[in-house]
Amino acid sequence: MFQRHRPASHVIARRSFMNDPCSFVYIPETGEYLLCYQWSVSTQDSYGECYGTCTSTDLVVWHDKPSAIQRGHASYDSQACFSGSILPRTEHGHTVLYLYYTSVSSMPISWKLPYVPGCETQSLAISRDFGKSWQRHAANPLLKQPPAAHNTTGWRDPFVSEWPAMAKMRGKAAVTAYMLLSSGTRDGGPCVRLYESSDLVNWADLGVLFSAQRNAPLTPPVPGLHYGENFECVSFATIGNSLYLFCGVEADSSQSTRHDGHFVFWHRGTIHSPECPTFVPIASGTLDHDILYAVHTTKTEHDLIQLGWADEDDNKHKLEQDWSGVLGLPRRLCELSVPKQRMIDSHAWTSHGDRMTTLGIDVYAASHLLRSTSKHYNGYQLHEIASARFELDLVLSVAELVFCFRMNDQECTRIIVDKAAITLDRSRSSKDNGNTLMRSGPFQLLQGESLHLRVFCDGSLVEVFANGRFCMTSRIYPSSSNALSMSLETPPGVDLSNVSVYADLKPAWPGRIASASL
């Protein structure tokens, strides 16, 4: 049961429950990326027992490392270590890592429950040996409670980064650090609080950077999406001259079609009023059209990268399989600029004269290293393939197609591309396991554009990328071990030579033993 639906080519804990990616950074002295994620080693039912830690030189092959921090070190983090981020600084010629995290002293915490002042505080751990060891700061917790704590729905997930444009606007040094905290108020709605520091220890509260009314529609509107009750795992990024804000939404799951009421939206916008900075959105979009959540954004050597968490969508097998949760493949963010034209998702585009721009999101380029070149098939050979772990990569001059996979005579999952949307049809994905609801997101080809579709299937995890601006992450749980076939339906006469499938993706963890034991 342990291996049956378990992804092998993604970041995943050795066992038990994992969730948010938190603290992701490149260390030039080691030539490695250091990644932490929330991991509950001993249970499937709690959050933040410790920070699982791993390293990679390419964001494809990973190696386990000792946990960076664990709960219970002191009274302020006796219950959990929630999400956070790492700010690298060069001191005396080498990189020092400042890890900020939400220290939790009382649980449960939910926007549905009365807020206990002091249950969430913000703390710091420092590493001077490139992540091998960490020391908590003597001044912890650095931030002890939000304003009007009794009226708060949440106050967590510190995202800390330099922000040269903000520093310049406020007349501060370029190395000034800024912290975003995800929050909300009961009599208002979700919000993002902004803090500023020149010494990385003492933080000034600059107020609310962005706020929304409870359950109000996104502005600019995105069909069917609302701001919900509380924000989580908020981050920002400057791409070119544009500022983007990424927010995880906690909504009432009984009134939301999203998994557990969770989704991530992005806003492109501008900053007003340097004395009390306020973010004003001018474009909106959905970061992922299904289950990916709690995204973490970081700048690497050359790229802006995001990682996100994919929860399970089959609760009844969590305890049996002894693991839960996985991170999606790393994604590269950019800004796309194209000739101005009419689009069905106009909320995601901003016009500038005869051109328009939107957020570009695509799988990170190094993901091709997962391919097994000895198991490469073209579009005319799909009938020869039997695989639960593969990549489909196609470029076709078509606006409509249907790709069927994890298929036998009783089960199959379908990806349907038409002129207005990309849909994941899970209605026959399993006879008796998991969520079989269909998922869909708006998608339209630009004038003269070919369809570039990439699909990664790794056990129960499915990721769909299209034309550098569409992403969908989902879960499937086929009941039959022989549901391994695939097929592609296209209009008559389409040349399938530009269709590639790489079967049996390479494992991401060469140092692990393929068993449930540690």
From TrEMBL:
Domain of life: Eukaryota
Segments forming domain Glycosyl hydrolase family 32 N-terminal: 10-333
GO cellular component terms, semicolon-separated: cytoplasm
SMART domains in the record: Glyco_32
Keywords: Glycosidase, Hydrolase
Gene3D superfamilies cross-referenced by the UniProt entry: Exo-inulinase, domain 1, Glycosyl hydrolase domain, family 43
GO molecular function: sucrose alpha-glucosidase activity
InterPro entries listed in its UniProt record: ConA-like_dom_sf, Glyco_hydro_32, Glyco_hydro_32_C, Glyco_hydro_32_N, Glyco_hydro_beta-prop_sf
Pfam families: Glyco_hydro_32C, Glyco_hydro_32N
GO biological process, one term: sucrose catabolic process
Start and end residues of each Glycosyl hydrolase family 32 C-terminal domain: 392-501
Assigned protein family: Belongs to the glycosyl hydrolase 32 family.
Stated name of the protein: Glycosyl hydrolase
Organism of origin: Protomyces lactucae-debilis
